[in-house]
Specification:
The chain folds into 2 domains: about 140 residues, Alpha-Beta Complex (Aspartate Aminotransferase, domain 1); about 240 residues, 3-Layer(aba) Sandwich (Aspartate Aminotransferase, domain 2), CATH 3.40.640. Helices cover about 40% and strands about 15% of the residues. It has 15 helices and 13 strands. It has a 7-stranded mixed beta sheet with strand order 2-8-7-6-5-3-4, with helices on both faces. Strands 9-10-13-12 form a 4-stranded antiparallel beta sheet. The chain has a two-stranded parallel sheet with strand order 1-11. Helix 6 packs parallel to helix 7, helix 6 packs across helix 11 and helix 13 runs parallel beside helix 15. The termini are far apart.
């Protein structure tokens, strides 16, 4: 038998599926995978349900239904001050991961260098490599996760096609500030590179920080791609509705890739997402405030148990250092241990590095986008286990 593609066959099963399967096996409280307990806004779900029963359920336009594309453009104007043409600069995808695939397959030529920032979301590297890109990794170091200026500059060259990063950042919950984004933007302009920015957590930012899109910085309007997600903004991760915003010259190859990846996304879910993007500002501020309260609930309890907890500026996650608890194994050992022995599941942070064996091995990531009762159950289980 001839071998299948070497890039994909060399991959293991994603850490989220591995840990979620272990959680199911041991009836553990799963704080590993980032899916909310909340059902999502009723108005959004009702709009999708009504459209399913009364609307058009055949193929929608390949770029997405006009109502959602218009809503994406209006949303970018409302929150980021971006003037976006919905007809030529917005496309709907079946989730943000498909959007990433469309962007990377559409923009990368084999041999192009791609700058990535570790720790990173686990789909980035496989897609870059499958597209023929050459990763150039820049590492953020805990506990500050500050962007290293010299290392980032050294990663760029005349062979750099693009930088791919996300803010707010999964897994380390960093929010890039304007100074850091200006550094990235300056390097993109200097080296004639693109910026593909995964902004799915744009509305889940804490402590009065603001989300800034690199697309709005000088010199970046024509060389940036912005990716958003209805799943994250409306706690509807199973819908898999994403959207891409890019200047027309960038959008064309991205859209041509999309047409042969999924082509379309269920129209009723697109309709629901459009309703969501037009919700009042109070919805988005309440989302951030509620998630911040959950962060504080889990953060405080984990500190009392004995974890060192790193700052979480946004997203669904807190990163913890478990060494103060006296556990001497790796992060994989620790996450398996607490799943089996304590009944609580977390994710090892080393899974978010290209070479886990050379990554920090004493951090575990916990997800807090759960009902308070779920968080309290997990906290109680951890307290009882570590009091032994």
């Amino acid at each position: 038998m001839k071998l299948a593609n070497s890039t994909m066959t060399a991959l293991g099963t994603t850490v989220f599926e591995v840990m979620s399967a272990l959680a199911r096996e041991h009836r553990s409280v799963n704080l590993g995978q980032g899916f909310p307990d909340d059902k999502g806004p009723q108005a959004v779900r009702a709009a999708a349900a009504e459209y399913l029963m009364e609307g058009h359920n055949q193929y929608p336009p390949m770029m997405g239904i006009p109502e959602l594309r218009q809503a994406v453009a209006d949303h970018a104007r409302r929150f980021q001050g971006l003037d976006v043409d919905w007809q030529s600069e917005v496309m709907v995808t079946s989730g943000a991961t498909e959007a990433l695939g469309d962007c990377l397959f559409g923009l990368i030529e084999p041999g192009d260098e791609v700058v990535l920032i570790e720790p990173l979301y686990d789909s980035y590297l496989p897609i870059v490599r499958r597209a023929g890109g050459v990763p150039k990794l820049v590492r953020l170091e805990p506990p500050t996760w500050r962007l290293p200026r010299d290392e980032l500059a050294a990663a760029f060259s005349g062979r750099t096609k693009l930088i791919l990063f996300n803010t707010p950042m999964n897994p380390c919950s960093k929010v890039f500030d304007r100074e850091e984004l200006e550094l990235i933007a300056g390097l993109c302009v200097e080296h004639d590179a693109y910026a593909v920015c995964d902004e799915v957590y744009e509305h889940i930012v804490f402590d009065d920080r603001e989300h800034v899109s690199i697309m709005g910085l000088p010199g970046m309007r024509e060389r940036s791609v912005r990716i958003g997600s209805a799943g994250k903004s409306f706690s509807l991760t199973g819908w898999k509705v994403g959207y891409v915003t890019a200047a027309p010259d960038l959008m064309r190859p991205i859209a041509k890739t999309h047409q042969f990846m999924t082509f379309t996304t269920p129209p009723n879910l697109q309709w629901g997402a459009a309703v969501g993007l037009r919700l009042g500002d109070d919805y988005f501020s309440t989302l951030a405030r509620d998630m911040q309260a959950k962060r504080d609930r889990l953060d405080g309890a984990l500190r009392q148990i004995g974890f060192d907890v790193l700052p979480a500026r946004g997203t669904y996650f807190v990163t913890t250092d478990f060494r103060p608890l006296g556990f001497n194994g790796t992060d994989e050992d620790f996450c398996r241990h607490i799943t089996i022995e304590a009944g609580v599941t977390a994710v090892p942070v080393s899974a978010f590095y290209d070479q886990p064996g050379r990554a920090p091995r004493h951090f575990a990531r916990f997800c807090f986008c759960k009902h308070d009762a779920t968080l309290d159950d997990a906290i109680d289980r951890l307290q009882r286990h570590f009091r032994r």
